[in-house]
What does this fold into?
Amino acid sequence: VQLQASGGGLVQAGGSLRLSCAASGRTFSSNAVGWFRQAPGQEREFVAAISWGDVRYYADSVKGRFTISRDSAKNTVYLQMNSLKPEDTAVYFCAADRGAVVRGTSAPYYDYWGQGTLVTVSS
It folds into this structure.
């Protein structure tokens, strides 16, 4: 499955963005899908994930501000990001697991990766 992340951009602190992760090649409505981010000079970190059956997981740093959702008809997973902070600035990646459940919050659990989309939050 090929993943395409989009929706990044420049936004002021307190603003909102919605990222999209579109799949091609096959449906991924029955796969667990996650979002990760990587800031310059830092390691890739977990942001959010959703399982088949829509069980959701969030990093503590984004809980209450970000929402992950899935539109199976469009074969797309979204990350709605509200109340953005400068520390949210990073390249955001979507990733899919071969399985249906979220096995963990580490990158090696995910088998397919998109190319990333840059989110810049200005203060």
